[in-house]
Amino acid sequence: MPYTIAEKILLKHSGQKSIAPGEFIEAEVDVALANDITAPLAISEFKKSGFKQVFNKNKIVLVPDHFAPAKDLKSANQCKILADFAKEQGIKNYFEIGQMGIEHALLPEKGIVLPGDLIIGADSHTCTYGALGAYATGMGSTDLARAYIDGKCWLKVPASLKFIYQGKLNKWVGGKDLILFTIGQIGVDGALYKVMEFCGPVIKQLGMDDRFSICNMAIEAGARAGIIAPDAITKKFIAGFKRKSKFYQSDPDAVYEKTYTWDISKLEPLVACPHLPSNVKPVSSLKEIKVDQVVIGSCTNGRISDLRIAAGLLKGKKAASGVKLIIFPATQKIYLQAVKEGLAEIFVKAGGVFSTPTCGPCLGGHMGVLAEGEVAIATTNRNFLGRMGSPKSFVYLSNPAVAAASAITGRITHPKEIVIAGLKVKN
Amino acid sequence: MIIKGKVHKFSDNINTDDIIAAKYLVSSDAQELGKHCMETISPDFSQKVSPGDIIVAGRNFGCGSSREHAPLAIKGCGVSAVIAKSFAAIFFRNAINIGLPFLESLDVDKINDGDVIEVDLTSGVIKNITQDKNYKTQAFPEFLQQIVASGGLINYIKKQKV
User: Fold this and answer.
1) Closest approach of chain B CAs to the CA of A118, in angstroms?
2) Which residue from A156, A304, A412, B133 could staple onto B128, CB 3.0 to 4.6 Å apart?
3) Chain B contact for A189, CB < 8 A?
């Protein structure tokens, strides 16, 4: 029977002879991830259940990243629950601040998630790891508690959708724009309960950082998982990691519920307008929109290549008067790299805040909460009503180049405007 | 299982930030979370709800984050069930895992805010008492019914292990 990559991974982990979309299966997980918001609930459910030892201390990952470094007493207490549980159970993949990073950038960087894995995470953006050719899916805390008990989860095998991108990407257009374009086309429930398999010549040429951005936002179309076939680029990325991985490819006659084929050669940078990630418009149609805050970072776009793009535009320039510019690298390693390459200096000289890794600003937690009436452009993944603070604030989503260009002018700006203007920025 | 209550109507794409804003995620207590349920889009919701009331919504209910605090907040404020045209996948499994009853129905447009309805989870029949109408929808698959009948996922697993 022909299978997609996702189906092959689920089949392998279910131990069954065959599987089909719509079927309920029990599967063994390779990695079970939770953070400071979701782990406390998982840990308390696990403890209430009466089981004493987790199924496998090496497959559990705990990352305090949402409200860490602790923003207040309550979040400090939440974070401590993770630290205590890790100590009690001997979980080595617990990352205290200083080693911590935003989970979905940290786990691939550390080689904790690999091609062919089945990864569950009590965080919706767990789908990010699909970029490695893994089946990675977001679940709730109780699912995690169950996995702590016996290393398994229940799943309904999703049908797959295939997305083929043809043509050539324009300058200033990247993975973020491809996924915003896709969500704009199919809507926020366009892939509900489905797997989104991203392929075609454009995907094959993308680096890992762009692939992570794409799979990261599969959930924003309602998908259970996003997935990209592992290849030479994936192989290079995981070189040096010891644990064994498996490269699955979809069979040529695998069944997809629907196939979308797009030529993206004419695509310009896109922006998702308030208050849905599907409310997507070309950047050039939004140049009248003034911004109060620019946020560059997150599990979507806080990787080194994102910071390089932003720094390339901000070099020698200043954020417009009155614009709050916040840059938060996704991990300590990326942070250090940005320091070494001089990117941190560019950001600080541009009047930006260069923050320690945290999910804080993205979900209106801390380190950049929006006030009533404020407008932000952010490289994050959600622009729901009140997502970054006040229910009366507005969030626009874009790639790092658009965000950096907008910081310079104080309004939503196509990066080419900055480059054309040279050192003198048109206001 | 039969549930009866007054309807609170919501639109499409009600997301988890609408249901419970991130700033309240420093607690996992259902009662505490319940005080802020739907606060972003309906500031006095938790005061309006009477125990047993039912949320009726459009497509893609519970989209966004994986926070189990969302179904917990709904349960915690006294809502007894949610009916929607469709549910986001993570919310769907969270609701099952914590034992928040829900049904998918395409007839939600026929139900008005304030109607009193009766929901039979086993048969999938929704009775609109205010309008004297019945809507038939699909009951849960058996596997999921077993989890709900056990009182949630952890109890279901414990039973399996005994």
Assistant:
1) 16
2) B133
3) yes
3-state secondary structure A169-198: CCCCCCHHHHHHHHHHHHCCCCCCCCEEEE
Q: Say what the ipTM of the complex is.
A: 0.94
Please state the rounded mean pLDDT for residues A272-290: 98
Class of the CATH domain delimited by A5-261: alpha beta
Q: Is the pLDDT of residue B67 over 80?
A: yes
Tokens 């840059």, residue located:
A327
Q: Which of A38, A45, A48 sits opposite B67 (nearest CB)?
A: A38
CA distance A205 to A209: 12
What fold is seen in the domain B2-161? Aconitase; domain 4 (3.20.19)
> What's the pLDDT score for residue A427?
36
Fold of A271-421: Aconitase; domain 3 (3.30.499)
Q: How many helices (H) and strands (E) does chain B have?
A: 7, 7
Question: In 3-state terms, what secondary structure has residue A31?
Answer: strand
Enumerate residues 6+ apart whose C-beta is below 8 A from A209: A175, A303, A304, A305, A306
How close is the nearest chain B Cα to the Cα of A425, in Å?
Answer: 37
How many CA atoms lie less than 13 Å away from A244 in the CB half-sphere?
1
d(CA A395, CA A406): 13
**What are the residue ranges spanned by the domains of chain B?**
2-161
- Residue A121 and residue A139: Cα distance in Å, rounded? 6
CB atoms B158 and A49 under 8 Å = yes
What integer pLDDT is reported at residue B143 of this predicted model? 85
Above 80 in pLDDT, residue A78?
Answer: yes
Higher-pLDDT residue of A233, B157: A233
Reported for A345-352, long-range contacts at CB under 8 A and 24+ positions apart, including other chains, are A346/A311, A346/A314, A346/A315, A346/A316, A347/A310, A347/A311, A347/A314, A349/A318, A350/A314, A350/A317, A350/A318, A350/A319, A350/A325, A350/A407, A350/A408, A351/A318, A351/A319, A351/A325, A352/A314, A352/A319, A352/A325, A352/A326, A352/A327, A352/A407
Task: Write down the pLDDT at residue A421.
Answer: 61
With beta carbons less than 8 A apart as the criterion, state whether A271 and A281 touch: yes
For chain B, the residue count is 162
A5-261 and A271-421 agree in CATH topology: yes
Tokens 């300590």 locate to A332
Bridge partners (DSSP) of residue B57 are B84
B contacts of A370 (beta carbons < 8 Å): none
**What residues does B50 pair with on adjacent strands?**
none
Domain ranges in chain A?
5-261, 271-421
Q: Rg for chain A (alpha carbons), in Å?
A: 21
Interface contact A40-B28, CB threshold 8 A = yes
pLDDT (tens digit per residue) in B83-138: 999 999 999 999 999 989 899 999 999 999 999 999 998 889 999 999 999 999 98
Phi, psi of A165 (to 5 degrees): -110, 120
Residue-wise pLDDT for A306-362, tens only, equals 999 999 999 999 999 999 999 999 999 999 999 999 999 999 999 999 999 999 999
pTM confidence score: 0.97
Q: Is the dihedral of CA A201, A205, A208, A209 positive or negative?
A: negative
Beta bridge partners of A195: A160, A225
Asked if residue A69 has a cis previous peptide bond (ω within 30° of 0), the answer is: yes
B residues 5-24 lying closer than 8 A (beta carbon) to A: 13, 15, 17-18, 21-23
